[in-house]
């Protein structure tokens, strides 16, 4: 078996070594980025005079062919191809002969793999951000079409104060806006080329890392070759940003499970986004929402697994770092699938305004408004809270309906009783960012503006 290090070794690697240490099974996903990195590297080698122009052409042609073979599935892997870097270099050397043997000049797989993974992450994080933005667009549409539909706003999952459905949906939308920010941030910070760092220390050859950085579209080159090959902050940060998206999906998922329960009856899933039961003919289950809830756990595992891998690692490259890829790939896959499934679910879910309204419009939902009515007449809030609490307690104990007691109470009376009418309390949430119709109309405009600005960032 041919290895990249055969000169120094008497024996071939053991089968168990290859089975345990090879990464080709998953890092094949980096093939397009590995080819891109090699093209930039070989062009730079040509420009600084380490390869003749004809050799550069031969290597580039071999890279083109390897790329085609990989894309078409015709690429034949050899037993020694432990990772995608080895496989492509081996194939290029087969195709380009002596010129191919110059491809790895001044390069190590340590700077190569870091370069590949940064190119990959830049592209994939942008794709996820675009998915998230599309999902936010669905939430915005649903907020607009929700009109004046209201539901209880909950604290401790106890009904607290009525809110507009639009307000509740956009609460999820703003959380995702921060996620888009985090994805953009992570992406900007990882936009640094490690190529030219070599194995750990740079090179005696006249490499030009600025040239390869610019060729690959990176914003900058590394400042320190040791840091360049050992830094995986960028993977951890990307994983955190992705995990936070997954956690936000899980919180919405839990609400969908609750809303679509027969107990709440606030919403019904479209058939295309619900599942049935193999035994219970009447069932319609919210499996997407449940998996959105569950997969956040898997994402947290990916993040904490990588952090544990990085903790205490000595500088610079260690083979441990090969364990960075599977968590990142899995996180990207799961978040992408999840965001798109939830977007479909939310675009097709039917909300039941009547059921939400009857849950929102219990007279006790106006308790805070009654207290604020008293405050408006000069009563200290703490006293107003106690007075209204006393009425609610006595009403719940069966003394009389709350409206009747409010009408009879000193400093409350008929005007205050009107606050108990269905649909009234939410109209009194007038403060900026609040849950009432005027504040929400303004919020919808701000959200729309933010969304188009974010969409432009990822164009
Ligand atoms: N496949 C390795 C990785 O993913 C890159 C190879 C570097 N290996 C080495 N022994 N220097 O990290």
Topology record:
Layout: H1 15-21, H2 24-27, H3 31-47, H4 53-72, H5 84-96, H6 109-146, E1 150-155, E2 158-164, H7 165-189, E3 192-193, H8 209-215, E4 220-221, H9 225-230, H10 233-259, E5 267-268, H11 287-310, H12 325-348, E6 350-351, H13 353-360, H14 367-376, H15 381-396, H16 402-408, H17 413-417, H18 424-427, H19 437-457
Parallel strand pairs: 3-4
Antiparallel strand pairs: 1-2, 5-6
Bound molecules: arginine.
How would you describe what is shown here?
The protein has 459 residues and is mostly helical. The chain is built from 19 helices and six strands. The protein has helices at 15-21, 24-27, 31-47, 53-72, 84-96, 109-146, 165-189, 209-215, 225-230, 233-259, 287-310, 325-348, 353-360, 367-376, 381-396, 402-408, 413-417, 424-427, 437-457, and strands spanning 150-155, 158-164, 192-193, 220-221, 267-268, 350-351. It has a two-stranded antiparallel sheet. A hairpin with a 2-residue loop joins strand 1 (150-155) and strand 2 (158-164). The longest helix has 38 residues, at 109-146. The mean pLDDT is 96. The protein binds arginine. Arginine binds next to helix 6. Arginine (ARG) binds at residues 23, 27, 83, 109-110, 113, 317, 319, 321-322.
Amino-to-carboxy terminus distance: 46 Å
Relative strand content:
under 5%
| Overall pLDDT | 96
What portion of residues is helical? 55-70%
Using only CA atoms, what is the Rg? 30 Å
Number of helices: 19
Number of strands: 6
Give the biggest sheet. Answer: 2 strands, antiparallel
Which small-molecule species are bound to the chains here?
Answer: arginine
Structural class: mainly alpha
In spatial order, strands of the major sheet run: 1-2
How would you describe the shape? elongated
Order of helices and strands: HHHHHHEEHEHEHHEHHEHHHHHHH
Stretches with pLDDT under 50, minimum 5 residues: none
